[in-house]
Amino acid sequence: MNRLLLLAAVLALLTALVHIVVGSLEITRPLLASAFSDEMKWLLFACWHLVSVVLALSALALLWGARQRGNGALAPMVNFISLLWIGFAVVFVGVALSRPEPGWLLRLPQWMALLPVGLIGLLSSALQGRR
User: Fold this and answer.
1) Which ranges constitute the DSSP H helices of 68-109?
2) Which of 17, 57, 79, 89 could form a disulfide with 114 if both were Cys (CB 3.0 to 4.6 A apart)?
């Protein structure tokens, strides 16, 4: 078992669960009750669930990869998923930094959950490649 990749997978699973459970209460309920047009509401609701699927399936893929210790063939998958999570974090940082008011990095803290998964995944893959 690749313990470093297992750590990334567990963090990814926790992030997916928080997104699905907490986020559904804090984001989707107010969204569906908003004054947006029905088309906009349901489009954003579908996008929310697309993110849920990506987070959950990528977490499961990392977990599967962690169980396949020594399998260098999985490095491209691990690297791709890791880069996705880093990219997601960069989006949140970019949006937060685009705001003129201070404090947005803490008001949009999702990057703090996304970035470690990506960095740990890449580190795991790099260390695996050395063996």
Assistant:
1) 75-98, 104-107
2) 89
Yes or no: say if 81 and 41 are a contact pair by the CB < 8 Å rule: no
DSSP letter at 28?
I
Residue type (1 letter), 42: W
CA–CA gap between residue 32 and residue 115 (Å, rounded): 29
Token pair of 115 as six digits: 């970035």
Quickly tell me which residue has 């990749």 as its tokens. 5
Distance CA 84, CA 90 (A): 10
Look at residues 59, 58, 65, 67 and name the one whose alpha carbon lies nearest to residue 14. Answer: 59
Report d(CA 111, CA 126) in Å as an integer.
22
Average of pLDDT values for 40-48?
A: 97
Question: How far is 103 from 112, CA to CA, in rounded Å?
Answer: 14
Report pLDDT digits (tens) over 53-111: 999 999 999 999 999 866 678 899 999 999 999 999 999 999 999 999 999 999 999 99
* 55 and 15 Cβ atoms separated by less than 8 Å: yes
